[in-house]
Fold this sequence. Notes:
Mean pLDDT: 96
Order of helices and strands: EEHEEEHEEEEHEEHHEEEHEEEE
Radius of gyration: 18 Å
CATH architecture of the largest domain: Roll
Number of strands: 18
CATH class of the largest domain: Alpha Beta
CATH topology of the largest domain: Diaminopimelate Epimerase, Chain A, domain 1
Low-confidence stretches: none
Distance between the termini: 7 Å
Strand content: 35-45%
Amino acid sequence: MPHDLHIVDVFARERYTGNQLAVVESEGTTGDEEMQAIAREMNYSETTFVESREDPYRVRIFTPEAEVPFAGHPTLGTAHVVRERVADGRPEEVTLALNVGEVPVEVRERDGRETLWMTQQPPEFGDELDHGRLAGVLGLSADRLDTDWPVQVVSTGLPTVLVPLADREALTDIDLDRGAYDDLTGDREAKLVHAFCADPRDPDNDLAVRMFAPAYGVPEDPATGSANGCLAAYLARHAYFGSGVVDARVEQGYEMGRPSLLYLCATDRGDDVRVEVGGRVVDIARGELL
């Protein structure tokens, strides 16, 4: 049966920037195999399916290769569509029931614009990995990583390997070695490799990042809310900016021609870290999935 289809750009400053997302109002009538086929057809980093029309809204997220329990830009983009097209009265907060649990999304103003913010699941801090090994995965020499900070696995629902780099030139020069990537991630739950540096293009920003997840059919992602949520937790836990409180602007996607802007807020409260990730969502198209 036909379903309403929406395309939005997430973490975008304007149309045709940020990360593309397809949102299908499936209302629980689409099977797993068909959802995966639709995600492969769309071929965006993720496609989401809104399975209910009541808060909390049941949502499932698929990459072109697999279903994932959580992802950041699909959460914000789907919340935007739910708020504008599904919920009554454009509520200031909606809650999505994802496979990782319930994730609230609220509307707040940032830099004079309406911005959606999600509160991510409490982070889990995992293994610290060898800098040299991750240099090999990224196709860089070991001296191009910033060894003052650890390479670490962090998860707020989707485990991510966080890799500190020395500068933006190193970030730009990444040439992912697929064999080394497969060796690293093959026996790990963490399939996302998220490289970052404190050397952004825009002086108003604090960090520049790139994210790679070929195991999920995403060679590179232009804007990654989940991985940047993990990064926010890491920055707070390690006091990267000098304290356990983070309020940062992050740029991503420039190497792909999809410049993106993400806002990160985190507070290390000792026993846990509160993580919020925000960004703008821009409508691109509406139609019908036949």
